[in-house]
Design a protein that fits this description.
By secondary structure, the protein is an alpha+beta fold. The chain has helices at residues 18-26, 116-123, 138-151, 175-179, 230-241, 246-255, 263-296, 337-340, 346-360, 374-382, 391-406, 418-431, 435-449, 482-491, 494-500, 510-522, 531-548, 586-599, 604-611, 628-643, and strands at residues 157-158, 161-162, 193-199, 202-208, 215-219, 223-224, 228-229, 298-307, 316-323, 328-336, 364-370, 387-389, 555-556, 559-560, 562-565, 575-578. The strands form six sheets. The chain has a five-stranded mixed sheet, with helices on both faces. Helix 7 (263-296) crosses helix 19 (604-611) and helix 12 runs antiparallel to helix 13 (435-449). The termini are far apart.
């Protein structure tokens, strides 16, 4: 919507200096045929006219192709003579304009998604153009370029200080674009001989010019130690610390034709640096938590075991102890099947080891909240440790039995009372102060279902709700009916009454269940892991959970945010759950710092700490290893018999 602009008659262009004032007073217009003479920079070692080159938009860093300068470590002087060569650029037709954009035109970037910082770096990489209009001032261009270069922060430094290797920004570079920088010699412009070396994500180039014997070595990433590429080690650490799978990441890299190191090299990184760093980080954080608990006095703990596979065929069982007051994981014990003679004994062994850690740390136990595992009940009773049962586990078990009773034809009335009975279980646990009071309130439910609200037990003589007149008389259960008989038999069972008296009145193990959902991200049940790999990934999940256990709820206009969801367990009933702030991953940064700045330089003490962990023998060690050829022969003959 704009037309071409023209100067008015008698208008004078912008005055730059005193000499321009004098020239402007004698001439009010600039001839259109005047030749613009532009000063150009000429290298002192070159006595020929400069060659006009066009940029191809490569990804070379700034100042790479500038002349080499004297190093601070060099003790000799190089004498050069400035011959003072200058060239004059003739007036060129518009069809031969240079490919570099003008300062007065917007810079077109080849980067697909770039931020402001990368735009500044890109705009400061070109030289002043040869042709400009009459308002062009060279001094202003030099000032602009100098300011952009000085203000653009070096990505390898922070406030002037060099960054650690793992904090330097990385970019995705195509090989063809990279090789454009090394195909020709920057000075003589001759074709060079190039040798490439690729080791995973590491890429090294040796460039040699056969004409002027120029030689340069270039590496895509720093090499730490003797021969360890920093990118390969950091990629292995990032995969491990984020709970990812090396093989899944390898598939992604192969789909993009990205180079990645082998799984064997990944395991070398894990055993030498990554797993020792994870163990050291966990032991340090655990010691701080245990010291705080020992100073607080008595502690309320929650305990539960997670198996790596469902059923009784689990290989690993990880027992977790959690501080329910502060919602922190304080101990994890990994037990293998063959250590205790079967998977049914793993939970008890894990609890024993965790209680030993608590005893050695001087922590006094108030109580332990857990599920209703029979072996755990007996062990804690013998150890004289107070135990409470999680209400959700008890409600889940009773709910399954009530649903089975309600499915029969003569007990269909019970379906209407199932939601009320489940709510009553939580109310009984929260409103009672002793075990006998919980039992009295539990048995009163049978009278309540018959429309009887006064009871014989003095601990709970009548229902606490207000008197009501029922409109539906058919919903009440009647004495002598099969449904009331089955219900009374279930409610007054010896084990049920014992479990009701131990329902936890304060804390529950829901935090442990939330932690187990985090463990699945780091240790999926469908992937087998070695013992130390399993243990270190469990430690990583605990570090992640402890850092985000007190994550605040999101706020919008000063109001807490919630999200609607329909859980399958509630049969389509809609409910809400609070929306939390995004989790943080500060522990990953701390582990990266530990690997690159501490463990890598002296891994011996960290590896020795890892080797002190007793690793059980593999499960197959208890069997005789057969000859492979014999097993293959039997396998093939079996299918041959089936085919005949």
């Amino acid at each position: 919507m704009a037309s071409s602009l023209h100067l008015k008659k008698g208008a004078i262009p912008t005055i730059r200096d005193a000499s321009a004032v004098q020239s402007a007073s004698t001439s009010h217009a600039v001839p259109s045929t005047s030749t613009v003479v532009m000063p150009q920079r000429v290298h002192v070692g070159c006595q020929t006219e400069s060659i006009t080159l066009a940029s191809t938009g490569t990804q070379l860093s700034m100042k790479t192709l500038q002349p080499h300068v004297k190093s601070t470590g060099t003790q000799t002087e190089v004498k050069t003579t400035d011959v003072g060569v200058s060239t004059i650029v003739p007036d060129l037709p518009w069809s031969s304009m240079p490919t570099k954009p003008s300062l007065l035109q917007p810079h077109l970037s080849l980067v697909e998604d770039e931020d402001e910082e990368s735009s500044v770096e890109a705009s400061s990489s070109f030289v002043a153009p040869e042709l400009q209009d009459s308002t062009y001032n060279p001094e202003e261009s030099v000032t602009l370029l100098t300011k952009s270069t000085d203000e653009s922060e070096d990505p390898s430094t922070t406030h002037g200080e060099p960054l650690s290797t793992h904090k330097i920004r990385k970019l995705l570079v195509f090989e063809t674009c990279l090789m454009e920088l090394f195909e020709k010699r920057p000075v003589c412009s001759r074709v060079c001989d190039i040798k490439k070396n690729i080791r995973g994500t590491f890429f090294a180039i040796v460039q040699r010019c056969p004409h002027c014997l120029y030689q340069r070595r270039w590496k895509s990433q720093p090499v730490i130690g003797h021969s360890t590429p920093a990118g390969n080690l950091q990629l292995s650490a990032a995969i491990y610390f984020c709970g990812a799978s090396f093989f899944n990441v390898q598939k992604v890299f192969k789909a993009m034709q990205l180079q990645i190191h082998s799984y064997k090299q990944f395991r070398v990184h894990c055993c030498s640096f990554i797993e020792p760093a994870v163990l050291h980080k966990w032991k340090t954080d655990q010691a701080a938590i245990l010291q705080r608990l020992s100073q607080d006095g008595s502690a309320i703990l929650g305990g539960d075991m997670r198996a790596d596979s469902p059923g009784h065929s689990a290989k690993y069982g990880s027992y977790t102890l959690m501080d329910l007051n502060n919602n922190n994981v304080i101990d994890i014990q990994l037990v293998q099947n063959n250590e205790v003679g079967g998977s049914t004994n793993m939970e008890k062994e894990g609890l024993k080891r965790s209680l030993k850690v608590m005893e050695d740390s001087g922590i006094k136990l108030d109580c332990i909240v857990s599920d209703r595992h029979p072996q755990i009940q007996k062990f804690l009773t013998d150890a004289k440790i107070t135990q409470y049962y999680d209400v959700w586990h008890f409600e889940k078990g009773i709910g399954k039995k009530l649903k089975a009773i309600a499915k029969t034809k003569e007990c269909e009335k019970l379906k209407k009372w199932l939601p009320m009975i489940k709510k009553q279980i939580y109310w009984i646990a929260a409103s009672s102060t002793s075990g006998p009071e919980r039992t009295a309130k539990w048995t009163s439910v049978i009278n309540h279902l018959q429309d009887i609200h006064t009871h014989d037990d003095p601990l709970y003589p009548k229902c606490s709700h207000a008197p009501r007149v029922s409109k539906d008389k058919e919903k009440w259960l009647k004495a002598g009916t099969p449904v009331l008989y089955k219900l009374e038999k279930l409610f007054t069972g010896k084990r049920v009454l014992k479990d009701v008296s131990k329902l936890s009145p304060h804390h529950q193990t829901s935090s442990l269940e939330a932690y187990h959902s985090v463990v699945i991200r780091f240790v999926p049940k469908s992937v087998p892991f070695p013992f130390l790999g399993m243990l270190c990934r469990l430690y990583l999940s605990a570090l992640h959970y402890n850092e985000n256990s007190d994550c605040p709820q999101k706020q919008a206009d000063g109001k807490p945010c919630f999200k609607l969801y329909w859980p399958r367990a509630r049969g389509g009933t809609c409910t809400v759950k609070p929306l939390k702030e995004d989790p943080t991953y500060n522990y990953v940064d701390e582990l990266m710092h530990l690997v690159f700045d501490v463990v890598f330089h002296d891994p011996a003490p960290f590896v020795s700490q890892l080797k002190q962990i007793p690793v059980p023998e593999p499960l197959c060690s208890q069997y005789d290893r057969p000859v492979k050829e014999d097993v293959v022969a039997r396998f093939v003959s079996r299918f041959n018999r089936g085919a005949s």
